[in-house]
Hints:
CATH class of the largest domain: Alpha Beta
CATH superfamily of the largest domain: tm_1862 like domain
Bound molecules: iron/sulfur cluster
Number of strands: 22
Amino acid sequence: MILTDETASPPAAPLLDLELIRKYSVAAPRYTSYPPATKFTLPGEASELQDAIADDNRPGAGPLSLYFHLPFCESQCWYCGCSTIITRNRESASDYVDVLEREVQLVAARIDRHRPVTQIHLGGGTPTFLPPEELARMGMLIHGNFFPDRNCEFGVEIDPRRLTRDHVEALRVIGANRASIGVQDTNPQVQLAIHRWQPPELNAQAVAWLRDAGFNSVNVDLIYGLPLQTAETFAQTIDDVLAISPDRLSVFSYAHVPWLKPAQRIFESRQQLPTPEEKLAMWAVAHDKLTAAGYVDIGLDHFARPGDELAVAQGNGTLHRNFQGYSTAAGTSLYGFGVTSISSTIDSYRQNFKGLDEWRHAIAAGQLPIERGLILTDEDQRRRTIIMRIMCDRKIDYRSMSSLLGVDITSHYAPEIADLEDLEADGLILRTPRGIEVTPRGVPLLRIVAMRFDATFTPGTSRHSQTI
Ligand code: SF4
């Protein structure tokens, strides 16, 4: 990665042009779904949402993907954007799993649960807030109601501060084989500023336990743009993390959304947040160090070893993007369980209640705990495909995309393609008779390119985080 002037042009690697990033960086969706979750406007009781579940049982439907949201954390990290419940009361976990069991039964009764499950994810919150015996119950819940495929990718989010060897073994017994470790930053001052004290030894110990237990992929999550971070401190964080040899890394831009997450306001009052220029320098240092260490940059914010499935999927054009970020699981129907979780079928999204009490009461009444959702029109589905391919492949081939969507995209989306003129003039994309390609300079602004095909976006009304 190079902080560039006009003459610098290394092939293929993303380029950072500070002026352009400043010009185009606006609040934009992350496009883990399209339309974004902020556009799910159907009330949960709408019959169309129930019909979409029934329709998902059609012959030839794809495999299942299961997501379980386990929201409990012992303490609040002040930067956190997740849906969490802060408590030290372990009984909450047992009660929660009781309700999850009923939710799974309600859903399993409505779907063809004999479809193979190719992906399972335990997210949070902190899944290992659950003691090992509750994780074992989660395993019974999954294996007693569904049929995970032999090659099922079973991932779990790990907080090294709340992990024991017993947790790791319990997770392996229930079939977990991938772990995503929350590190964020290894600098002690940054950790104090974000209220997350995590000595590096804990990270190394977590990785050692996971590898010993036979987990075949370990991902590390980092965040840049946190209080007191500089390019120098973040360079040291990258070195610290490289020392534990993860298979993949996610290097996320800190999303500052204090209107949604009031705990983040403390960063403003202390004036500790880095400037956009400093954030970009951190991104650059991460990119340089990780690619120099042999990792391939995937999509927007992921890095993986060259032989990793994500890198292979990006190379052959089968990379996907879902609510957990980049993924190799294409064509699955996602069923989410627990508060705030999101489910999706080919033409629908449903989000569960965010409030624990509302979620629990709906399930106690024998209803699916859906707060809101959306039925996608054919046009939404086409735009979703285009946006997904931009985010994953960084290019659109007109002929193959037209054949996939069943419309000539050069005429159907003529206004959107014409509207790319300023991006092309600034060197962020190339338009040829064959298609559109995001240039290295445009990679940091992928969300902005994708946004040009987003029919739901109204400039000036966004409540999303800044692109940088
Ligand atoms: S442990 Fe993770 S989910 Fe919990 S508050 Fe911290 S960042 Fe958020």
